Each structure stands twice: as structure tokens, then as C-alpha cells.
TrEMBL record:
Protein name per Swiss-Prot or TrEMBL: Butirosin biosynthesis protein H, N-terminal
Source taxonomy: Bacteria, Bacillati, Actinomycetota, Actinomycetes, Streptosporangiales
InterPro entries in the cross-refs: BtrH_N, DUF4872
Butirosin biosynthesis protein H N-terminal domain residues: 14-142
Domain named DUF4872: residues: 155-324
Pfam family, one: BtrH_N
């Protein structure tokens, strides 16, 4: 068996920040999961619905791998990305750095991973690979999936070759510190203001605070979109709280990031933003509970109440991001 030495798993909550943590700790950079999420300007919102979708999707972060690109650019890290349509070359792209003693990040469809507990297609799942043998690939996934895990090389090949929403062409990547180790304190303000600007000025109405307003209007109509409310509403609520978001649709992670930043920088705007996101996070958890209750009971009033809470969330997050954007002044 070939295995990278010195890989440290921490049982993180979100797949992409979990993988970034594994890769960066191997490079001697040890940052908390909220700090990785925040420095990558990871927070967002998306209300996604289309004709070919069975049910609407609520997303709370930027699209898969954008967080990684943001983080690498901001911290001056060397990000080497490889993609290919060839399964043979894709395997070589992974084994070469592992043979050289470096863990590798992979983007794939989690549905095909044998250890995965939730059998749902998600092409934006990201894991760290740290070893392999003749039969299995050895990975580090989130704490929910069991941290160090294994899946057969056949299943890994299927996961990497999958096509569909958010998938990539056998994407693999490594991170390298090009010079002196970065100092997070120097990068928190640009990370926060960039995130705030994107959230406040989204290009379409499905994104940012405008997307939350749209969700507030449409969530109360969801019973008209499903023939199985128990299945569809329960799944939405599960993904909001348990689906690798860290809880509250990633708002817990961003709240904790802002708390860390407030310890690094003495700024009242930062403290205000943290307080508002702490309040928003609790409301997102309330929304998830209302959606789950609607699915379990069939009571449309729960969705009406969820829409009312979402209007409050949109206002809170808009106020928070306006305050945080002024950090750049």
C-alpha cells in the first residue's frame, strides 16, 4: 500500500474546507474550518429551480471549488489543478503526487462512494486522497462520513467520471506554499468585503439577499411542487442542517469565522456583523425545522411561517453585509 505520511484528519463539517484543511496542514498551515471558509469568501445563497429538477434547492455557499480558488489566490498558494476525460490519465494525476508524498484533493459525485451514508447524487463533493492499494483508495472525508475512509478504486472511478450538475472532469488538485507561510490577519478584511460585495450585488435575483427574498416568496408554495411532501421537504431540511453545511446553511461557519476575526481585529463593524450573523444562523435553523415539520405534518402554515422568517433573514443578512462591506473603507 502507498500512503502519505503525516496526514491529520480533524472531523470537519463541510467537505471542501475539510479537504483544504488536510492539504494545508500537510504544508504546515493549520487554520480552523471557519477561518478556511471565511478566507475563501465561501458564504452565499442560491435558490435553484428548473424544469428538469424534481424539487427546488437551497444553497448557502459559492459554487463548488470556487472557495478553493478564492483561498489559494488570497493566501498566495500554488494551486495545481488537473482535469481530463481519460480515466487512465485521471488516475495517474492522483497517484503521482501521492507517490511523491503529497495528499490530493478530488472533486466527485458522492453517490458512488461506498462508505457514504446519504445516497444522493452530488457532483460537487470534495475529498482528500492520501493513499491507495491494489483494491482501495484511502480518503479523508468529513466527520459525518467517518474521517479516514476507504472506497474501492472501481467506485472512485465511477464517482470521478460522473456527469451532471456541479460535476467536473476527473478534477484533482494540490496546494503548495510558494513562499513564506501566509498570515490570516492580513487577509480577513479583503475576504469579508469581497464576500459582502458579491452578496449585496448579485447578478441575478436567485443569489445573495435577493435570493433569500425570492425563497421567502416561493417556499410557502412548495406543496404545489411535490407529490411527496414528506420526502422532498424532509430532504431540504436535512441538507440545510446536516448536509455538510455545518448547520444553519453554512451560517454557523460564517458566524464562527467572524468571531475569530473579531479576536484578530478590534473593529465595531466586525462585532456588529458577527452579532447579526449569530441571529441569522439561529433563524436559518428555525426555517429548517419549520420545513421539516411541514413535510411531516402536511401543515401549509409551517411553510407560510418559514417564508415570514426568511424575510427577516434577508433583512438581517443584508444589514450585516452592508456593515461588513464598510470594513474596506
Amino acid at each position: 500500500m502507498t500512503r502519505v505520511r503525516g496526514v491529520v484528519a480533524r472531523g470537519a463539517r463541510h467537505c471542501e474546507t475539510n479537504t483544504l484543511g488536510v492539504l494545508l496542514r500537510h504544508e504546515g498551515i493549520d487554520l480552523s474550518e471557519p477561518m478556511l471558509f471565511g478566507l475563501g469568501s465561501g458564504l452565499s445563497f442560491l435558490y435553484w429551480d428548473s424544469r428538469n429538477m424534481g424539487f427546488p434547492f437551497l444553497g448557502g455557499r459559492v459554487k463548488p471549488f470556487e472557495l478553493t480558488r478564492n483561498l489559494a489566490t488570497r493566501l498566495g498558494l500554488e494551486l495545481a489543478v488537473k482535469e481530463t476525460t481519460s480515466p487512465r490519465r485521471a488516475w495517474e494525476n492522483v497517484t503521482a503526487p501521492i507517490d511523491a508524498g503529497r495528499p490530493v484533493g478530488l472533486q466527485l459525485d458522492s453517490y458512488h462512494l461506498e462508505y457514504f451514508t446519504a445516497k444522493v447524487h452530488f457532483g460537487g463533493h470534495i475529498v482528500a486522497m492520501c493513499g491507495y492499494d491494489d483494491h482501495d483508495a484511502h480518503l479523508v472525508d468529513t466527520g459525518r462520513q467517518g474521517e479516514p475512509v476507504s472506497t474501492s478504486r472501481v467506485s472512485l472511478a465511477r464517482a470521478r467520471a460522473a456527469r451532471g450538475p456541479m460535476t467536473a472532469r476527473h478534477r484533482s488538485f494540490t496546494l503548495t506554499v510558494a513562499g513564506k507561510p501566509p498570515r490570516p490577519r492580513e487577509h480577513v478584511v479583503p475576504a469579508i468585503t469581497a464576500c459582502a460585495a458579491a452578496f449585496l450585488d448579485p447578478p441575478i435575483a436567485n443569489l445573495g439577499y435577493r435570493g433569500i427574498e425570492k425563497a421567502a416568496r416561493l417556499v410557502p408554495t412548495w406543496f404545489q411542487r411535490t407529490d411527496d411532501p414528506r420526502r422532498d421537504l424532509s430532504q431540504v431540511a436535512f441538507l440545510m442542517e446536516e448536509g455538510g453545511t455545518g448547520g444553519a446553511l453554512f451560517r454557523n461557519l460564517y458566524r464562527d469565522f467572524l468571531a475569530e476575526c473579531a479576536e484578530l481585529l478590534d473593529d465595531s463593524r466586525l462585532r456588529t456583523g458577527h452579532g447579526l450573523y449569530a441571529e441569522a444562523a439561529s433563524l436559518w435553523t428555525e426555517v429548517a425545522a419549520l420545513i421539516a415539520r411541514a413535510g411531516g405534518t402536511g401543515d401549509a402554515r409551517c411553510l407560510e411561517e418559514a417564508g415570514t422568517v426568511l424575510r427577516d433573514v434577508s433583512r438581517l443578512e443584508r444589514e450585516a453585509m452592508r456593515t461588513l462591506r464598510r470594513l474596506g473603507e
